[in-house]
Design brief:
The complex is a heterotrimer of chains A (about 290), B (about 140) and C (about 290). Chain B has 1 helix and 11 strands. With about 140 residues, chain B is mainly β. Chain C has one domain (about 5-285): Divalent-metal-dependent TIM barrel enzymes (TIM Barrel). Classes of the chains: A alpha/beta (about 290), B mainly beta (about 140), C alpha/beta (about 290).
Amino acid sequence: MYQYDRKGPKRGVALYSYSAEFGLTKTLEDCFEDVHDMGAHGIEILANTHIANYPYPTDEWVENWFRLCDKYEVVPVEYGNWIDSHVLGDRDLTTEESVAMLSRDIRLAHRLGFTVMRTKMPVINDLLEPVKNWREIIKGALPLAEQLNIKMCPEIHTPSNLKGKLVTDFVDFIKETGTKHFGLNIDFSVFRTEFKEGEWVDPNYTPNAPEDIIPLLPYIYCCHAKFINMSEDFRETTIPYPEIIKVMQENGWDGYLLSEYEGADKYDPGYEVGQTLRRHHVMLKNLLGD
Amino acid sequence: MLEADVIQYRGFRNIERDGKAVGFQICVRSDYYRGVWLSQLRPGKVVVDGVTYPKEDVIWEINGKDHTVAELAEAGGEFWRITDVATLKIMKDGGLSQGFHDVSVRFAASCSYMPPFLDQFDEDGDDRSFNGGTYTRKNMIIV
Amino acid sequence: MERRVKRGVAIYSYSGEYGRTMNLEDCFKDLRDMGATGIEILANSHIDSYPALTDEYVAEWMRLCTAYGVEPVEYGHWIDSRLYRNREISPQEAREKLVNDFQIAHRLGFRILRTKMGVINAELAPMENWREIIESVLPEAEKYDVVMCPEIHLTTVLSDRFVQDYVDFINETGTKNFGLNIDLSVFQNRFDVPGVVVFNPDCKHSQPEEIIPLLPYVKCIHAKFNKMDDDFNELTIPYPEILKILTDYGWEGYLLSEYEGEKKDVPGFVSHELRKQHVMMKRILGY
């Protein structure tokens, strides 16, 4: 299987970015080829979106998955999954049922060569607080994650703050259990400082400074390199990318930055998100010096 | 699936050898509703940012095999399908620079079921024929 | 009611979307929605291993035909007389490609071939050695049970000399492996309707009754259409008169829809126009 040995922050793409085109004008292989064009070597898929016949892909599909990774020199980096505790509508899944769902994804992630999962927790309010039994669910899945070397990472996304209770609770859990198989995925939306005039901003949101990430780095196994607006001269105009990357490099962080574009304009007819991603990768390439 | 434009964003990148850029490539789909035998192709010039690369400088990779334009003219047994791209490869030390590029590719396909007076194409010119012409896509990005 | 005239679709109609926003199975799905039971493919466009035929393609083809209740009707292929820039192809070269097409068509279950010949003038008269080429492959056509049908298409009219030449050829040779595909564009009498793509506004056209003496030789019809209105009328070709003649004279075969209007590359547009045309044909035919 293809391996990419570079140390430090590395470039990758979250295929979520293609959500307006995937299945309509782009196949999975088209996305891989785009990633290859950009010279990126990591990929995030969403299990529920990009795996045909999820959660039970055929052997042929899995075989093709590894063929794509080899052909386009791409490492399976992050497997996006959901703990859908609210799936039944009239009651939440029990802890045991949630663990079973999560375990199924851990096995599938492992089968596809992933080592990190973006494990989306079910939330209970607009502060994105997770269900009360999240600790029990994660603990229930930890032995399997350990056995298969998978790191489950909830995503820290605006309006959450790196110094907030949500993050503190996760870090406390990691320290208490001493686990290496639960960590964080930081979405760079938490660093966003610029908004358009009149744009709605969540009242719960306070931007983080780039250095706020430093104490968390040991627990971060992956980042969503969220971007909002790329200028014609390849700068991201809303998030202080140069400072963030500098902090991560200087503090020796090793892992993938997965480009994620979620601008609503990607649903405009004829929009090609690949072009937007290419702009982002011009910037990342120059900042990382790869 | 292919992009709607003849010139595809996907596949536009520098060609590297031993870690060094030695050229660049552009992928095109056929604008014709049927696939053609390679000898029916009328390959023309490629223009990038105003720099013209004559057709003799362009290698057409189809079905994984490289062809010069002279070889295309003889390849009546090989076929370009409408669901496949042709990869046009041009050698250039250092490749193309990082950033935006305006790209034009000129080609057509000969068509025996059209009257001969319509089945004409000047590969080096700029006019359109019923079955080809100069295709342009602006702001293509090299990362 | 006896269903001698049947509805099908030439998936050439989807050429603005094929490979971009539609694949082969999407075309089949559309056909089933319309209640169309026959299909025409173009060898050069819709067989992803052409000029070879893989076992995988054959298996997938059979699966699609069965799953969507569609029968293989017409196989479009070409005699590319100007295959090379500086010379006409030889009869032997033409023969090799033709026999390959017969084999593929036969394996996929097609009996009718739309054999598009190279042309030599503005009336679309075929290359001069067409008789020699066709005669040389008649034994193989018989062996693979296929009928080669040149397509009679605008700007040709039914009274053009070479249409009679084809008929004479059939009568003289007595062959059952050569016939005609009439494209209804030969009856197109309106060129001034907005949205209609006009190739030549001064084009001649044939009258519907001119098809009557040709019917014994017509194996297949391209139900060309350019513009449907929202009352399900085609605005450029006299469909009611033509279809009445076909049913009155007991013609048996497929009408294969072929859309040649505007906006072919707008996703969903052609699917919608085809449905309108099939509403029209269904109403006229009564089924």
